[in-house]
Amino acid sequence: MKIGQLFLLVMVLVGSTSAMAADRGTRDEAKALAEKAAAYYRTVGATALTDFEKPEWRDRDLYVFAVKTDGTQVANGGNPALIGRNVIDMRDVDGKLTNREMLAVKETGWVEYKWRNPSTNSVEPKATYVVRVSDDTIVAVGAYNP
Question: Could you give the count of Cα atoms lying within 13 Å of 83 in the half-sphere of its Cβ?
Answer without folding.
Answer: 16
